[in-house]
Amino acid sequence: MNARFYAPAARPGTLVSLPDDEARHLTRVLRLRVGDPIAVFDGLGAEFDASVEHVTGDRVDIRIGDARAAAAEPRVAITLAQAVLKGDKMDDVVRDAVMMGVTAIQPIVTSRTEVSRATLERAHRRERWQRIAVASVKQCGRALLPPILEPLEAEMLPQAISARQLPVPAFMLVEPSASAHASALRDVEPLVPREATIVVGPEGGWTPEEIEAASGTLRPLTMSARTIRADAMAIVAIAALLTKWNEL
Amino acid sequence: MNARFYAPAARPGTLVSLPDDEARHLTRVLRLRVGDPIAVFDGLGAEFDASVEHVTGDRVDIRIGDARAAAAEPRVAITLAQAVLKGDKMDDVVRDAVMMGVTAIQPIVTSRTEVSRATLERAHRRERWQRIAVASVKQCGRALLPPILEPLEAEMLPQAISARQLPVPAFMLVEPSASAHASALRDVEPLVPREATIVVGPEGGWTPEEIEAASGTLRPLTMSARTIRADAMAIVAIAALLTKWNEL
Question: Under a CB-based contact definition with an 8 Å cutoff, are residues B179 and B211 in contact?
């Protein structure tokens, strides 16, 4: 299979320049040359045959050819709202969630999250996660690039859901001991919704206040009788819900 | 919650010594003392209250108390037959599979696996994976410790399934392009079996010969329209099948 690149403005028949990261990957890592056949995706769900037309230093122009099939998308558009995890764990969650087919990732700063939104911004974490999302899209065969949304405070979650800034139904993953009102996976209706939000907490879990504030707007959901690690909860919950909805 | 330790011979009312690793964890990491209350599990599914009775150097004797509830086990006993992955990735798969509730892990050496059974043996990899399984059981709240079975060559898989050395139904995860006869997840019957084997290949995938040899004995199964990384396939497949069977 030809190498795949992210070309945001790709339209059949046009000549476009690859973004810098992609151009470097093409010339320096894969060492492709003028005339080599490649595939590109536009990040919005379309994929095309293409070929390298000019290479000048780090600039790569490509000629876009016919549309071709990318990996199928689930019928449900899932936003993963994930509490920012420690160290590299958030990177892994972004990579895995993109591979599993989410359409957007909303980082959340909770009471028990150890970094602030200001620190995330200074460290350019959002840009980093977006690059990881691009790499994961390339690897898993999707043509849709999930955006990394601007980090949100956990206390703003109910309002974001009410305002449909994040889609409903919104499932908030909780420990079985944390909520008397939580549904189990078997209680989730098998009819696939058009969209959904899956909200996953940090290593230390949600505070009782966060769960209380969310109740009524978000639907508390427990995932397993075993304790699932915070950094594994997103992939497990996405796999389970997509299975429930016959969309994995 | 009191700290949990692995005490293989635990029976109510008896005095038992902790295994060396567990004794070190109790004295050096958690710095517990005589009289401190703990919980222990026997690795076979039973869990007990206990208390520290003697500490002599690195030896710890504990008094076993009443039985207590551990995390519930799925009704289906799943053996994960996992092709050995590169570097630390196999460690992560063992940790995750134990957390998800498998009852045994069968390492597989395939045509595209870069280490031999002899190398695995010399490097004491099986002992290492067993220690990782113990750590994962402690973390996820289970009282059942999945054994790490002796590594098996992929070519022996059909025979191991036929001889019921590995349980049926046996699902072999394959790429959609690798088999014309593969089932999708939606084709799997929702009735939970008593036991099952989930067979996951290496980074480079199965060879056509391995898939051909397995057909008839193992049931080829595709997991997603997106390409799932080899080191993520086990957790995704276990989550999906347990959801299908209403056992997550």
Answer: yes
Q: How far is B98 from chain A (nearest CA, A)?
A: 10
CB pairs under 8 A between A and B: 92
Consecutive sets of 10 residues in chain A, 248 residues long: mean pLDDT of each?
A: 90 95 94 96 96 93 95 96 95 98 97 92 95 96 97 95 96 87 91 97 94 92 94 98 96
**Cis amide leading into B193 (omega within 30):** no
Burial level of A147, CB count in 10 A (0-12/13-18/19+)? middle
- Distance between CA B101 and CA B127 in Å, rounded? 20
Indicate yes or no: CB of B226 within 8 angstroms of CB of A71.
yes
Which of B41, B137, B188, B226 is the mutation pick for testing A, counting most A CBs within 10 A?
B226
Residue of B nearest to A139 (CA): B227
Interface contact flag, A236 B240, Cβ < 8 Å: no
The predicted-structure confidence for B63-93, as pLDDT tens digits, reads as follows 999 999 999 999 999 999 999 999 899 999 9
Residue B159, SS3 per DSSP:
helix
Say whether B224 and A186 touch across the interface (CB within 8 A).
no
Among candidate residues A86, A85, A79, A83, the one with its CA nearest the CA of residue A100? A79
Express each pLDDT in B39-63 by its tens digit: 999 999 999 999 999 999 889 999 9
d(CA B27, CA A38): 59
ipTM: 0.94
Q: Options 2.40.240.20, 2.60.120.280, 3.30.565.10, 3.30.479.10; which CATH number does B4-68 get?
A: 2.40.240.20
Strand partners, B105: B80, B148
Rg (CA), chain B: 20
Determine whether the interchain pair A140/B235 forms a contact, defined as Cβ–Cβ distance below 8 Å: no
pLDDT at A114: 85
Residues of A in contact with B242 (CB under 8 A): 224, 240
CB nearest to A99's CB, from B71, B141, B228 = B228
> What is the CATH T-level fold of the domain B77-244, as seen in this structure?
Alpha/beta knot (3.40.1280)
- Quick one: closest CA in B to A190, which residue? B244
For chain B, the domains span 4-68, 77-244
User: Which residue on chain A is closest to B101 by alpha carbon?
Assistant: A226
Taking CB atoms and an 8 Å cutoff, what residues of chain A touch B141? 226-227
